[in-house]
Amino acid sequence: MSSNKNVFASKVGAILAAAGSAVGLGNVWRFPTETGANGGAAFILIYVLFMLVLGVPIMVTEFAIGRHGGKDVTHAFEKMSGGKRGWRWMGLVPVVSGFLVLSYYAVVAGWTLYYAYEALIGGFAGKTSEAFTNDFQTFSSDSLQPVFWMAIIIALTCGIVALGVQKGIERGAKIMMPLLFVFILVLVACSLSLPDAGKGLTFLFMPDFSKVTSSVILSAMGQAFFSLSVGLGCLCTYACYFRKDIDLMKDGLSVASIDTLVALLSGLIIFPAVYSISGLSPDAGPSLVFITLPNVFQQVFGNLPWLAYIFSLIFYLLLVMAALTSSISMLEMSAAYFHKNLRLSRPLAAIIVSVVCLILGTFCSWSFGDWSEVKVFGLNFFDLFDFLVAKLIMPIGGMLMCIFLGWVVDEKVLCAEMTNHGTIKSPLYPTYRFIIRYVAPLCIFLIFANELGLFNWS
Ligand code: PHE
Q: Who is most buried in 31, 142, 315, 410, counting CB within 10 A?
């Protein structure tokens, strides 16, 4: 075990922590929703392609910047640029994004915790589909209940971050990630044994390219970004704690493979289940996981209520854990800055960030109820934060990081980082460098321009 407490003690721990950040509601909630809305298998193929050609290189870029810098992300940019102080400002991106992303992510994470609790106390038993719809709407628009559950999520996240890199983040990932896998496999097995599961498989694996439009392509790219947590500097923050002997390229590929596998397995849980009841549609949108699925669990296991109970409980616990391993990385982005630069103790830094996120998160939660009409630039708080993070900061951040590493940083420094100072071979390095210099900035510019409506493709 490494004696330095600010470094992940093991290589596995580092991979699991980064994978924990990547695997989250983006895989189990957003991926099926996007796949459903964008026509299934063809979307998935394009998404996987983007993971490989864009997601992995940007992830590796974040790893290289973070690990080279060591102490924290602001110093990382300055050091890697060879002392150009202007680039230090890029290091503030994760600090600001950490607040924004956690504030709205924690709202949905809070919903998952409430649903896990409902599943535990048997609250779904015997409900009709109208009741599921009404209950979700009543719950999410309430001014206190969702805030209460969100507060628990933030408190748990804060507790883990306060414990530090090895005892908190690494240990949390080492416990939760394997459990998450076991849960997923149990659920996939149950789901595949349902009647008509084959229809769900066809939807997932038989591409129909006639459904591919430019907006499907762009959604697939956006999903790859969100799912891998790239562009905000979140993985830069974690990479500051990477050991010097970690093979960044190999790790990036491992994390992306785990992330993609979890997304596909989530599809294998959700779509066979949805197709096993006639009349339900795979494109039910964000409510898929909070209205359609609990309803499915009740209906398909109607005469085996204990199975419905177990299935629902495991499913929502899985969502809670996936959300937690990601929210930890979000809190760490901002807390690490206050801890390292303002010399606050780690627990104090974590508490300050948590309190601010709790306040901002409350505004986001009220966007579904009392404050639904409170708008900034035409968006309620929840949508505003999502817009800022996923549509603005992620693409711009990702693009700037590629430009930084591809054009500003001395090539020798980059090469040394990728080959661990010549001690390992990195056969993909030339391809990687080509991508970050040309392909990634151009692609990202295109998503960004389209998201902002600079041109209208579809
Ligand atoms: N990748 C995470 C998910 O899939 C979300 C996330 C985004 C985490 C940005 C950290 C930073 O849920």
A: 315
For the chain, domains (ranges, CATH) are 11-452 (1.10.4160)
- Give Cβ neighbours of residue 337 (< 8 Å, ≥ 6 apart): 72, 73, 74, 91, 92, 94, 95
- Is 112 a pocket residue for ligand 1 (Cβ < 6 Å)? no
**Per-position DSSP letters for 295-313, written without gaps between them:** HHHHHHTTT-HHHHHHHHH
Q: How far is the CA of 24 from the centre of ligand 1 (A)?
A: 6
- Is any ligand 1 atom within 6 A of the Cβ of residue 229? yes
Read off the tokens for 83: 């002392």
Per-residue model confidence as pLDDT tens digits over 92-135 = 999 999 999 999 999 999 999 999 999 999 999 888 888 888 99
Contact of 180 with 322, CB cutoff 8 Å = yes
Ligand 1 centroid from CA 423, angstroms: 32
CB atoms within 10 A of CB 137: 15
Cα 21 to ligand 1 centroid, rounded to whole Å: 6
Q: What is the DSSP string of 11-45?
A: HHHHHHHHHHHHSSHIIIIIHHHHHHHTTSHHHHH
Looking up tokens 């090539």 gives: 411
Please enumerate in sequence order all residues whose Cβ is within 8 A of that of 121, keeping only pairs 6 or more positions apart, or say none.
none
Atom nearest to 322 CA in ligand 1: 12
